[in-house]
Design a protein that fits this description.
With about 50 residues, the chain is mostly helical. The protein has two helices and two strands, in the order ββαα.
Length: about 50
C-alpha cells in the first residue's frame, strides 16, 4: 500500500469518506430547522432595523 509522509493512503481515504458522511448526515438532520432559523433571523432583523 502506498504511504505518503508516513500515513497509509487507504486509511486516510476511508477516514475522509466517513467524515464526509457524518457531516452530510448532520446537515441532513439539520434541514428541517432551517425555516425556523430563517423566521427567527428575519424577525430579529425586522425588530432591530428602523
Amino acid at each position: 500500500m502506498a504511504r505518503v509522509a508516513g500515513r497509509n493512503v487507504a486509511i486516510s481515504w476511508i477516514a475522509g469518506v466517513l467524515c464526509t458522511g457524518v457531516v452530510g448526515a448532520l446537515i441532513w438532520f439539520a434541514i428541517p430547522i432551517l425555516p425556523a432559523v430563517a423566521s427567527f433571523v428575519g424577525d430579529t432583523l425586522r425588530s432591530t432595523l428602523p
